Amino acid sequence: MIKHIVMWRLKDEAAGFSMEENASQIKEMLENLKGVIPEILHLEVGMNVLASPAAYEVALYSEFASLEALAAYQRHPEHEKCKEFIGQITKERAVVDYEV
Predict the structure, then answer these.
(1) Which residues contact 75 (CB under 8 A, 6 or more apart)?
(2) Is 68 helix (H, G, I), strand (E, B) or coil?
(3) Where do the Stress-response A/B barrel domain residues begin and end (predicted)?
């Protein structure tokens, strides 16, 4: 099993919306992938609740059966739409993929 974790720091304002509005949009977009991309075994999105200089605003935790399943998810057209939007509103991204 592959666990895929991504965290984003967002711009204060982007695409005409506040950081909080964009964080909510990311959460909604990613959560909507659950029923669309069959390779997703588990997916949850959280928005930070504790202010800290080290904090990221949004985190994604997801699980996939294999590296091939993760690759299929990453290539999926609906995921590509999410990536395009998120790329416009973020200032930093961190990611880790690991096998269990």
Answers:
(1) none
(2) helix
(3) 2-98
